[in-house]
Amino acid sequence: MQKLKERWGVTSNFQLTIIFIVFAITGSSSVFVAKPFLNLIGLQQANFPDAWWGTTIYWVLRILLIFPFYQILLVIYGWLFGQFKFFWAFEKKMLTRLGLGFLF
């Protein structure tokens, strides 16, 4: 845990615990929040063929569509838990690595 704290620039175990809680809440709630949107656009597994590639396409599209919800909620929950500075830097670093650094 010490290496992780040093890597992230975290000073206490409490702060590290808060960061883990934010990641956990964000993952669950991004799927929950995105579900009505996915239903609205008709992304349901029943709309894809029963072949193996139909299931694969469904899950790839689902993950790609949930990704923006996750990014937004990560910063919002980070702010609510008093860790905005950490999560904003984390967000910029992650999007830059994905080639989306031009957004900043």
Please outline what is shown here:
Helix content is 75%, strand content 0%.
Report on this structure.
- This protein is mainly α and about 100 residues long.
- About 75% of the residues lie in helices and about 0% in strands.
- It has four helices and no strands.
- The chain has helices at about 1-10, 15-40, 50-80, 85-95.
- Helix 3 packs antiparallel against helix 4.
- The longest helix is centred in the middle third of the chain and has 29 residues, at about 50-80.
- The protein is elongated, with a radius of gyration of 17 Å.
- The mean pLDDT is about 85.
List keywords for this structure.
mainly alpha; 4 helices; 104 residues
Give me the secondary-structure topology.
Elements (H helix, E strand, L loop, with lengths): L1 H7 L4 H28 L11 H29 L3 H14 L7
Distance between the termini: 31 Å
Radius of gyration from the alpha-carbon trace, in angstroms: 17 Å
State the secondary-structure class: mainly alpha
Tally of individual helices: 4
Instruction: Tell me, rounded to a whole number, the average pLDDT.
Output: 87
Number of strands: 0
Label the overall shape.
elongated
Largest sheet: none
| Unreliable spans | none
Helix percentage: over 70%
Q: Which range does the strand content fall in?
A: under 5%
Along the chain, the helix and strand elements come as: HHHH
